[in-house]
């Protein structure tokens, strides 16, 4: 079985831990925590403490709302807690959320995230040496002297994966990170036509080899013999992401502009039911994998021809947690080794 990751989602921290243990027992490569209703780092700490083999990752931690210093220290702590199993997944997040929710400047995101990752790596590399840590960029200026972290790192290098949707961020991921994380709306067609091409361009510019770079993507997957119900569950998750302008490129590629406008109009009115029903069957087929265990395995295998690590997510938006748990069990039973 190809390496497979799993998005952790639960109504409680103890539920996250239980799900992570089940994924480890099922032979999953990695488990990943998201960041919207909870902090990805805080969720990951008990998961790392309660597992011993599965890789633990953030999918994704928001890079601009924390200083590179605190992100670097948090990564070092989590890597120690997990005995070297951390994958630090970072993303810029949406402009609106950065500026209106967190009160931080978004700036030119590809330039800013490049600098952010460079500073994080610089701090991780030098914080135990006692050497000055100096960086002067467009967005980050760091002058750390007289600082010595008295704990030896578990590893010399913590892998950093950068999330992206648009071609420029995807290209930047290939240039500056160790891996790429595609968003839920990165359909198989979008991965083939946009992601793969820009990963190749970024690696070439940086003089890097593809075999040294990991391409992952989050995929909404609902395994069920009740296809009608499962498709409705996936429909709700797609509706949520259709409201975010940052994720427009894949919707445009598939020609879903009219549907997304209608979904956003319903969202602004607070009409959740119309939002969900605004997602067409073609949108479900493009952005989700739904079906019986055999059908879902076959569809995910198609992704594996173009990515190294599918990170599977049960449908979850606008669903109660019992239904989410049902789809998570379907993923564990279908894709466990």
Strand content: 15-25%
Total number of β-strand segments? 12
Described by strand count, sense and barrel closure, the largest sheet is:
8 strands, parallel, barrel
Low confidence ranges: none
Sheet with most strands: strand arrangement: 1-2-3-5-8-9-10-12
Oligomer: single chain
> Which structural category do the helix and sheet elements fall into?
alpha/beta
Secondary structure: elements and pairs:
Blueprint: E1 5-8, H1 13-25, E2 30-33, H2 40-50, E3 55-58, E4 61-62, H3 68-81, E5 86-91, H4 95-101, H5 109-126, E6 133-136, E7 141-144, E8 160-164, H6 167-176, E9 179-182, H7 188-206, E10 214-223, H8 227-242, H9 248-253, H10 257-268, H11 272-277, H12 281-287, E11 288-291, H13 293-304, E12 309-313, H14 321-335
Parallel strand pairs: 1-2, 1-12, 2-3, 3-5, 4-5, 5-8, 8-9, 9-10, 10-11, 10-12
Antiparallel strand pairs: 6-7
List keywords for this structure.
337 residues; alpha/beta; two-stranded antiparallel ribbon; globular
Can you walk me through this structure?
- The protein is an alpha/beta fold and 337 residues long.
- It contains 14 helices and twelve strands.
- The strands form two sheets. The chain has an eight-stranded parallel β-barrel with strand order 1-2-3-5-8-9-10-12, surrounded by eight helices. It has a two-stranded antiparallel ribbon with strand order 6-7.
- Helix 2 (40-50) packs parallel to helix 3 (68-81).
- It is globular.
- It starts with a strand and ends with a helix.
- 46% of the residues are buried.
């Amino acid at each position: 079985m190809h390496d497979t990751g799993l998005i952790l989602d639960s109504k409680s921290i103890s539920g996250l831990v239980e799900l992570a243990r089940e994924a480890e027992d099922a032979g999953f490569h990695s488990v990943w925590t998201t960041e919207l209703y909870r902090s990805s780092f805080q969720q990951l700490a008990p998961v790392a403490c309660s597992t011993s083999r599965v890789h633990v990752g953030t999918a994704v931690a928001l890079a601009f709302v924390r200083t590179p210093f605190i992100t670097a220290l948090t990564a070092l702590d989590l890597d120690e807690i997990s005995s070297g199993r951390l994958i630090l997944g970072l993303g810029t997040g949406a402009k609106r959320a950065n500026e209106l929710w967190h009160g931080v400047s978004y700036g030119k995101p590809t330039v800013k995230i490049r600098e952010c990752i460079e500073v994080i790596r610089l701090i991780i590399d030098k914080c135990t040496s006692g050497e000055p840590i100096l960086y002067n960029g467009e967005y980050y200026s760091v002058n750390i002297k007289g600082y010595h972290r008295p704990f030896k790192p578990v590893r010399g290098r913590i892998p950093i994966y950068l999330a992206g949707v648009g071609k420029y961020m995807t290209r930047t991921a290939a240039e500056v990170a160790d891996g790429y994380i595609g968003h839920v709306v990165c359909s198989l067609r979008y991965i083939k036509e946009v992601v793969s091409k820009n990963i190749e361009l970024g690696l070439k510019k940086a003089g890097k080899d593809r075999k040294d770079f990991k391409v992952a993507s989050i995929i909404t997957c609902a395994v069920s013999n009740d296809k009608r119900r499962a498709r409705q569950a996936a429909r709700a998750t797609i509706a949520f992401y259709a409201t975010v302008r940052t994720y427009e490129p894949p919707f445009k590629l598939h020609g879903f502009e009219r549907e997304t406008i209608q979904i956003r109009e319903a969202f602004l009115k607070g009409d959740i039911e119309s939002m969900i029903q605004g997602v067409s069957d073609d949108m479900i087929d493009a952005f989700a994998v739904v079906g019986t265990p055999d059908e879902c395995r076959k569809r995910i295998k198609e992704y594996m021809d173009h990515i190294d690590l599918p990170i599977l997510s049960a449908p979850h938006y606008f669903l109660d947690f019992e239904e989410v748990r049902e789809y998570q069990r379907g993923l564990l039973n279908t894709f466990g080794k």
